[in-house]
Amino acid sequence: MSKEITAAQTAAYQKELANDTNAQVLERAVSHQGILATAADFASDRDMTPVFSIDLDTGKVANQKQSGRCWMFAALNTMRHHLADLFKLSDFELSQNYTNFWDKFEKANYFYENVLATADQPTSSRKVAFLMATPQQDGGQWDMLCAIIEKYGIVPKSVMPETYNSSKSSELNKTLNLKLRKDAVVLRKLVADNASADDIAAAKDKMLKEDYRILSFALGEPVSEFDFEYRDDDKNYHIDKGLTPKSFFDKYVGWNLSDYVSIINAPTADKPYNHTYTVEMLGNVVGGRSVKHLNVSMADFKQLAIKQLQAGQSVWFGCDVGQESDRQKGIMDPNYYHQDDLFNVDFDLSKADKLDYGESMMTHAMVLTGVDLVDGQPTKWKVENSWGEKVGTKGYFVMSDAWMDKYCYQVVVNKQFLPDDLRKIQETEEPTVLAPWDPMGALA
Fold this sequence. Notes:
By secondary structure, the chain is an alpha+beta fold. The protein contains 17 helices and 14 strands. The protein has two domains: 36-66 and 256-443, Cathepsin B, Chain A; 90-254, Cysteine proteinases (Cathepsin B, Chain A, Alpha-Beta Complex), CATH 3.90.70.10. Helices cover 43% and strands 16% of the residues. Strand 2 and strand 3 (237-243) form a beta hairpin. 40% of the residues are buried. The active site is at residues 70, 364, 385.
């Protein structure tokens, strides 16, 4: 039986607070300064100095502005680092708007296919409700960007620059989601009325044509052929004519994207280590590359990232950036804020409990560009963000190793760095399918 709060309980709480000699001082501090400012421990400023034993020179940071394309910026940043080294192009950027266009277009089709696959379920079912809550948005996963590049290639930012709607995406997302929900009504009705496969295909084709028009007006229409004209860091002039987006990727990046795989650390009971996982309804390109995660211990997770950094290559990673971090200073450290001491309350939860109970999930992707090793062990990590140069140290953050333990969930590494047993699992094991709302799909 439910129990109400009694007057006696409240009186006891008030008496205990009145007898606390520090209560009034703390109340004044917290009410005037806020919880985080009062709980901050500035010793972290000293401990998180941006000096690293391994420090890759990756140039100026990019700026995703008012959009949720962190995963895309971070992935393209790892590729531009490689390109910049090869062709002496510091401060060069790949077009995030180009991949954004095709991602949103493919997500529309992916949504339609999921609507048709669940059309026999009521709108009250959890899967249908999940689909309709956010038909598409800015977020995504490494594998999803690979699917876009494998199908459409990439281009320099100069060829397809940012627009108002790519940098400030709320209007486009709201408009497109309204359109997709309306389309879902039509598709579900066609299925309910036993429409033919040809009629459904024709309706979907009309919807996609409209989606393409909306995206072209908002983001600009993608190019199919272009000339790449630039001066390198030595001021030498270059022009490469008649490139396609796919030939540009092959020539200037040249990665075999299948070599780069997603590694996660999710210590929950439903995801045993050394096994692979995917997430239902998570993707963009129908028939393209699927999301696949290999779950490993935190020790293996960090060693893989270190090996790739030691080889001179930056590392895409996913984390819960808002937890125990100072955005303006660019410090990510669980020892920075001490709400437990401030309130005399135990706030501690294990990493697994944070995931299982909705306290934490992947919310942001960035790039590891350095690490400080002391006696072979990491103490702090250099992080390239995509929030412009006005935060952190010209846009770079410092992450303590303890913060990585608590709030980092995913890295992408070249599978050459995997030990043989893990590589075999990653390459051959059929992944366990997780629910659409699993936190390992949260970046999307």
